[in-house]
Structure formats: structure tokens, C-alpha cells
Design a protein that fits this description.
single chain; alpha/beta; five-stranded mixed sheet; two-stranded antiparallel sheet; 5 helices; 24% strand
Length: 156
């Protein structure tokens, strides 16, 4: 089960597509939409991250930053971000440390025994680093409810 509402969001430092470290703690003072996605270059993941990209100005207007996390390598995330015009960091958790810290591993991804990626999970974190909204889709082939996410950002 994913981390609970009201708990402190575990800090992390992951590499973006340019091999630069990005830490959650560097966004203190801003709200964060932390979106875990299973795999770059898959249809639903593309739809999800492109939906967040479409909402970037709206989210920025609410003092919020999108951070996307997958277990893909930084190079794949960079190509994925460039191919889809993403302007927010797409971070690589290749060793699954952050995915496990948020308790959202998805084992046997795509029916491949032993391949672990992340669930499709979204956390809204307030400016003090507290988790205020959590949603993990029951089926990673289904996009999250964006209205619920944006409402959660607006309410904190």
C-alpha cells in the first residue's frame, strides 16, 4: 500500500535526462505533483505525462511543480521527454529506491517475471513536504483522475 496521507514525503535525489541530480527537498516551499509511471514510450504513460504537460501553466499558477519518476534509465527518460515536449523533470529511479520508499513497486511488469517498475501513482505534496493526496490506479493501463489531482493541489 502506498504511503498514507499526512505523512512526510520521503526525500530523494534522482537523475534527470541530462544526468543532473534533482532532489524533492529542493522544491520545499512549492507544492509538488509527484507522478510515478511504469515505462517511457508506452501509450498510457505518454498520455499521462502529456496531460500533465498540458496543465503545467495551471499548476505553476498554483505554485506547484510536476516531477515524474520511472525506473527507466536517464537516457530513455530524456528521449521520452524530448519526444513529448515535456518541460518538467522526468527522473530515473533505476535502482527502485524511491519507488520502494513510496511503496509503489509493480512487480512482473508486462508479465515479465522479475521485472519491477512502478505502479501508476500520483502523490500531491504540500510546500512543507507532507503528502496531501495519494492515488494509485488499480490498473496501470488506466490514467489517473486529473481533476482530483488538480483539486487537491488547489486546496492545499
Amino acid at each position: 500500500m502506498a504511503l498514507a496521507l499526512g505523512t512526510s514525503a520521503p526525500d530523494f535525489t534522482l537523475l534527470d535526462g541530462s544526468m543532473q541530480p534533482v532532489s524533492l527537498s529542493s522544491y520545499r516551499g512549492k507544492k509538488v505533483v509527484l507522478a510515478f509511471f511504469p515505462a517511457a514510450f508506452t501509450g498510457v504513460c505518454k498520455a499521462e505525462l502529456c496531460s500533465f504537460q498540458t496543465a503545467v501553466q495551471r499548476l505553476n499558477g498554483m505554485n506547484a511543480q510536476v516531477l515524474a519518476v520511472s525506473a527507466d534509465l536517464p537516457f530513455a527518460n530524456k528521449a521520452f521527454g524530448e519526444a513529448n515536449g515535456l518541460t518538467f523533470p522526468v527522473l530515473s529511479d533505476w535502482n527502485l529506491a524511491t519507488i520502494n520508499a513510496y511503496n509503489v513497486p509493480f512487480e512482473n511488469f508486462a508479465g515479465i517475471p522479475g521485472l519491477t517498475r512502478s505502479e501508476r501513482a500520483t502523490f500531491v505534496i504540500d510546500a512543507e513536504g507532507v503528502i496531501r493526496h495519494v492515488h494509485v490506479t488499480e490498473n496501470p493501463g488506466v490514467e489517473p483522475n486529473y481533476d482530483e489531482i488538480y483539486d487537491a493541489v488547489e486546496k492545499i
